[in-house]
TrEMBL record:
It comes from Mucilaginibacter panaciglaebae. Substrate binds at residues 127-129, 164, 171-173, 224, 248, 254-257. Catalyzes the phosphorylation of D-fructose 6-phosphate to fructose 1,6-bisphosphate by ATP, the first committing step of glycolysis. The gene is pfkA_2. Allosterically activated by ADP and other diphosphonucleosides, and allosterically inhibited by phosphoenolpyruvate. Pathway: Carbohydrate degradation; glycolysis; D-glyceraldehyde 3-phosphate and glycerone phosphate from D-glucose: step 3/4. This is ATP-dependent 6-phosphofructokinase.
Amino acid sequence: ISKIGVLTSGGDAPGMNPCIRAVVRTAIFNGLQVVGIKQGYKGMIENDMYEMGTRSVSNILNLGGTILKTARCLPFRTDEGMETAYQNIKAQGIDGLVVIGGDGTFTGALRFSQKYPDISVIGVPGTIDNDLYGSTYTLGFDTATNTVIEAIDKIRDTADSHDRLFFVEVMGRDSGAIALRAGISCGAEAILLPEKSTAMEDLIAHLKNGAINKKSSSIVIVAEGDKTGGIYDLAKAVQQEITHYDIKVTVLGHLQRGGAPSSFDRVLGSRLGFAAVNALISGQSQKMVGLEANHIKLTPLEEALSHHDFKLESDLLQMMDILAI
Ligand code: ATP
């Protein structure tokens, strides 16, 4: 390996910048050149790349988002798009790629490196959804969860003052990871997750029980991938059954994706970026670097993508209702 290209793709996640910084500096320390590819695969196709030096990543550890920008790029899904991308990075002399993103990004990376095996590819799990197999945590999940907690703590203040019940929708696509952690952290009265169905009667009984136990407010966290029904319809249906609370709905939205990365995500980004470059140097390809039991682990991209049965922590699932009685 002599020249590494680094890109961020798919949804942005706090911690991507510390990771880019680690990739650039680890590569340069090892005598390699580094090229920053703008807007994910789009920059490969449109030849939007620039040489990066140690100072080009100064003062970015504390920044959310990604200095390389990110995009969803449809042409990269086609053979023609991939060929153009390949020709462009070959012309640059790039022989190794670090791709930071989620499952879509890894699917693209795997197809690309199967088609063009002379380009080694290492993936870094960068998504707030925490939905990849092979890493207990993905970059951005911790920061996003902390942002959610901060917002729900504020909602709790107003809910408590007015005897209100709030339905709060949080991000995570098909994963309830943010919802579950935030729910435990904020003492949510109920957490609706895509991984676990909740019957309407049970939810209502649970909330009525809260009133009997003299709770002055209730928070129900709804993961965006929850299948109980849209959050507004859900709130309306519950309001018909529960009249002692005034019900409000808050959809937290994209504020969850921004903000300075937490200490955890800065360290995780640094570790994974460092490990990704070392993996390329040692001849690895088509792997994802992850963190399991506090150790760096390499997982074949194929495997990281094929495990759709990502499980939430069973003790958290077990305690989520019990701790809210
Ligand atoms: P997040 O989990 O945050 O959404 P992601 O990496 O899953 O991140 P996607 O938009 O699904 O985000 O994928 C990012 C990019 O990866 C796509 O815009 C596309 O360029 C590329 N990609 C996804 N699937 C494929 C595929 N089957 N073949 C080639 N490229 C793909």
